[in-house]
Amino acid sequence: MRILSAHKEHGPGHAWLSMDHAVTPETALVIERETDKDRYLGSSGWQSVPENLPVDAVDGGRMLLGPTIVDHLGEGDFIKIAIAGTGYFEEDFWPVVPISGRKSSGFGIVSSKPSADAHQKAGPSDLAVNVKGGGARQSAAPTDNEDGDEAAGAGAAKGRHYMPGETISIDPSLIAFADPSITEKPSTRISRKTIVGLAGFWVLIAVCLLGWYYSPYLLAGLDSFSQQAEQTPVEEPVVTPAPTPAQTPSATPAPTPQEPQVARGRSYWQQQMMSGQMSGQQLYEASEETADNADLSDMSAEFLRLASNKGYAPALRSYAERYDPTKPDAAGASVIKNANTALDAYTRLKAGGDANAAADIQTLCQFLEPKYYQDAEARTAVDDYCR
Questions:
Q1: Quick one: CA dihedral 324, 326, 327, 333, positive or negative?
Q2: By CB atoms within 10 Å of each CB, which of 70, 161, 166, 359 scores lowest?
Q3: Where do transmembrane segments lie in this chain (predicted)?
Q4: Where is the domain boundary, 79, 95, 110?
Q5: What is the pLDDT of residue 190?
């Protein structure tokens, strides 16, 4: 079963449903969820009895579901969809599908009706006071139960209604208005010291970030320079002894030059890795050489990954078994198993002619099948490599 959103084609509240069964425009669905009450979806929402829900349209093998169905389903709901009258059904989790723009109410039920108490929330702000001079009176907002009241007078004939009460006179001279010319506006200017301080702060942050980013390269250069300084022997003056009568200069054996030992530390391996000139076999050999050094275990894993990316078969085999949850960890190794990574490497080995890769894929798929509905990572691996 495959569910895809159709909001780009038909607007929010629509989804495409594909099932391994023939469908027609007359096909109806029965939708059920995991709950103790109101398990079945009906035309008016969730209910206790099944109901055949028609689809909006059929495009080839796809069925278009409308808001009557989509608006009642939420992301992650585990549902069972059956084709009415056939006994065929499939189960899956409902994906992210935008619902229609109607207002949500209750548990997944939508309603397009406005709130019933929208007109009952009028407060004091709904009243109005009109001041026209010293003899003006206070008026009130129109009411719904005073039509025909004689106290309204001629105003009732024009559709205006007034609350009965005493007329209030307001003297305009008692009303004080603020002089806008003397009103102080808050200052929005930023002082020069603040600007300079902020600029210096951001410059300091930028320098720290640059230093952090380039620190591995600087440290590698310093280590290389120090190693070269230690390995360079002190030159001594060459003294050629005078030949004796019984010995000629041509008979003197030439000294055998000694090659300096190169200490293969982290800086050496960093330079080799950054050069980008190593083949898949060389990368794999570097991974094997650094695997026994606890300080270089991270570089050993990276060499192995680069070697597998180049398609070197022994590296692909080691890389797949390293992440295969059915394989034991190598001695001294500690890695988080990842079935997707292992299956990808096995698939590449199989394409390269590895006779054992197919059996490894089958074993790992059988290990993941029982976890299909409980583990999202296992479900993705099975869908991508096992089916």
A1: positive
A2: 166
A3: 195-214
A4: 110
A5: 76
Distance CA 55, CA 65 (A): 5
Q: Are 13 and 64 in contact (CB under 8 A)?
A: no
**DSSP label of 257:** P
Residue 177's pLDDT is: 55
Reading the block at residue 362, the tokens are: 């089958």
Q: Which domain holds residue 338?
A: 279-386
For residue 9, the surrounding DSSP H or E stretch is helix 7-10
Which stretches of the chain drop beneath a pLDDT of 50? Answer: 103-158, 161, 233-241, 246-262
In the prediction, which pLDDT does 346 show? 93
CA 130 to CA 50: how far, in whole Å?
62
- Percentage helix, strand, coil, to 5, in the chain? 40, 10, 45
pLDDT of residue 140: 43
Radius of gyration for the alpha carbons in the chain, expressed in angstroms and rounded? 41
Which pTM value belongs to this model? 0.34
| pLDDT score of 226 | 63
* Edge-first strand listing for the sheet containing 15-18: 2-5, 15-18, 62-65, 57-59
Domain final position from 90, 110, 130: 110
Q: Where are the alpha helices (DSSP H) in 33-147?
A: 67-70
Within-domain flag for 318: yes
- The neighbour count for residue 188, using CB atoms within 10 Å, is 5
Is 272 inside a domain boundary?
no
For residue 268, being part of any structural domain is answered with: no
